[in-house]
Specification:
Strand content: 25-35%
Radius of gyration: 31 Å
Number of domains: 3
Distance between the termini: 45 Å
CATH topology of the largest domain: Immunoglobulin-like
Low-confidence stretches: 1-41, 241-265, 283-300
Structural class: mainly beta
Helix content: under 10%
Mean pLDDT: 77
Number of strands: 29
Shape: flat
Largest sheet: 8 strands, mixed
């Protein structure tokens, strides 16, 4: 271990270095990880994956990390900026030392005051967070910078802390940001509305309790960290709202008889409802994806999460396994319309006559969606205006889209088109009678999808921890019209529904399920046992069986055996431990 004096010299040197921020894009299994770009955003987004994440939070009163903030001029006399750290790697870590500089390019608008009341103490400026285990780190020598470094209106706020006893704070790999320190700024009277100040992180270096580097940026030493700056916008204060109290002009009492208002109908929606429990998406699934009143085989929904943009698991499952429960081998999804109201008075409207919307999907992940129209087909809510021909013939897992025995008579869904990575649903009916269906008070199923995972995914993922790939099944341009072509009540923007819901699908393997039959049993135990003791370079070694750790350690040892043996009895419907679907991402 290096002596503390040598470490101090190293950290101080890092505080003045200038480097280049390096962005890393993951390439798992030879395919570009495009989410690496999207995950580099804060303000409601998610941090970068696979690295230590250091970020400036310019709104300390709001949860999460806010990297863009506004200050009204004239307004608050002071503002604080937190220096935070999160761990998005595959394993937990610790903070044995930290080093950073917050560079302020314009001290005429924000000024980090000198704090000489506690020279050499943790409450200087930057103000180290000595709460809890953070108190085990010492921030002197060298003393905190106290912002004495000022050149031509620029400031460097420097802090360097370390522990020589390997007892620094824990850094769990849960992406939750911890506050390392706070820089206190005075908002100067010379700040100008319309100006912007960007506070930059420089010379960042973090090590764990063994003083091994875990991340650095600007410059990068050995291990890349993702570092995020903060932007402060100076804006005009919002205009005051003037409230006038009207004065009575006479003492006469005037009584008005209120005119009953016409109730505004709730906006129409088209949302996806995935199979959650017994393999049959239904009205109770729509009402609440955690309601199990129609369950036949499980006690709790573990394969879906609720919401207007729900999420669901799609398990890789292969024959000769039955693969007949929710999301096993395929995922059955209903397109469900609600609040279809075509009568201003609330009753007796002409009803639904046609609909149109586009379903988009990634055909490199989902090989087929097996679309079919339902509402105007046999057994559909609008069958009286049909029957019509569905888009495709049925399959055993999609039995509610049985093809019509006869040719269509007064309606057709031949406007539906199936393309490479999208399906344009379009259905019309003919004639003015009978009326079409309306949904109040019950939902209406208008179409169906059966999602089939791409065959190649069996080569791309393996039955280890947190395996899987998330893909979005997206709806666009949902329109519902009555039999005369008028948009249903509550439609927006010329006829669009208020909601046009999406679905996040996590395609994955049950952890420990080596034979892909959606359970972990003695067969899986036997399979892993035959590989015990093998290693990379031997003919019996295979990465499929190298389950622990998640990134493979190139041998099949006791960890890999326990990964399977400890999950005996686990099944896709009730995974042990739980494997909930990844939630739909925030925009």
């Amino acid at each position: 271990m290096k002596k503390p004096q040598a470490l101090i010299g190293l950290l101080a040197a890092l505080g003045t270095a200038i480097g280049v921020l390096v962005a890393v894009v993951g390439l798992p299994y030879g395919r570009a990880n495009y989410t690496a770009f999207a995950d580099l955003y804060h303000n409601g987004g998610t941090p970068a994956l696979g690295v230590i994440d250091i970020a400036l939070d310019c709104d300390t009163g709001t949860g999460g990390v806010q990297s863009v903030c506004s200050i009204a001029i004239p307004g608050p006399a002071t503002t604080d900026v937190d220096v935070t750290i999160g761990n998005n790697t595959a394993s937990a870590s610790s903070i044995g030392s930290l080093n950073f500089v917050v560079f302020n390019p314009d001290s005429t608008e924000l000024f980090a005051d000198n704090d000489n009341a506690n020279p050499g103490a943790n409450d200087d400026n930057p103000d180290y967070n000595q709460a809890g285990a953070f108190g085990n780190l010492a921030c002197t020598p060298p003393d905190p910078d106290n912002d004495l470094t000022e050149t031509a209106g620029q400031q460097d706020s420097f802090l360097s802390c370390f522990t020589g006893s390997a007892n620094g704070p824990a850094l769990p790999n849960d992406s939750v940001h911890l506050v390392m320190a706070t820089v206190h700024y005075t908002v100067m009277g010379t700040a100008i509305v319309g100006d912007t100040t960007e506070l930059d992180l420089q010379g960042v270096a973090i090590s764990d309790n063994s003083l091994t580097e875990t991340g650095s940026c600007d410059p990068v030493i050995d291990v890349v960290a993702a570092c995020f700056n903060a932007t402060i916008n100076f804006i005009a204060p919002p205009a005051a709202t003037e409230t006038n109290t009207p004065q009575p002009t006479n003492t006469a009492t005037v009584t008005n008889t209120p005119v009953p208002a016409t109730a505004t109908p709730a906006g129409p929606t088209v949302n996806k409802v995935p199979e959650c429990d017994d393999g049959v998406p239904s009205a109770d699934d729509l009402a609440s994806l955690t309601d199990n009143s129609d369950d036949t085989d499980v006690t709790a929904n573990q394969n879906c999460t609720p919401g207007p943009n729900p999420s669901a698991n799609l398990w890789l499952c292969v024959a000769p396994a039955p693969c007949d429960d929710a999301g096993e081998g395929s995922l059955h999804v209903l397109e469900v319309a609600t609040n279809v109201d075509t009568a201003p008075a609330g009753v007796g409207g002409p009803g639904l006559g046609a609909y149109e919307f586009v379903v988009e999907y990634d055909h490199f992940v989902i090989s087929s969606v097996n679309p079919c129209d339902i509402v105007f087909g046999p057994g559909g809510a609008g069958a009286a205006r049909g029957p019509v021909d569905e888009v495709n013939s049925s399959s055993p897992a999609n039995a509610d889209c049985t093809p019509d025995p006869n040719v269509n008579t007064d309606g057709q869904c031949t406007q539906s088109l199936i393309l490479e990575n999208l399906v344009r649903f379009g259905c019309v009916t003919v004639g003015g009678a009978p009326n079409g269906p309306e949904t109040p008070p019950s939902p209406m199923t208008i179409a169906s999808l059966e999602l089939i995972p791409h065959e190649d995914l069996k080569q791309d993922i393996f039955p280890g921890n947190d395996n899987g790939v998330v893909t979005i099944i997206k709806d666009n341009g949902c329109e519902l019209v009555d039999i005369f072509g008028h948009a249903v009540l509550g439609s927006i923007n010329g006829g669009l529904t208020l909601e046009c819901g999406n679905l996040a699908v996590t395609i994955r393997i049950l952890e420990g399920d080596l034979d892909l039959d959606c359970d972990v049993d003695v067969t899986d135990a036997q399979l892993i046992a035959t590989k015990y003791g093998s290693f990379f370079g031997s003919l019996i070694y295979g990465k499929w069986y190298d389950l622990e750790p998640a990134f493979h350690d190139l041998d099949i040892d006791i960890k890999d055996l326990q990964k399977v043996f400890g999950r005996i009895g686990s099944a896709c419907q009730e995974p042990v431990p739980a494997q909930p679907p990844v939630p739909y991402p925030n925009p």
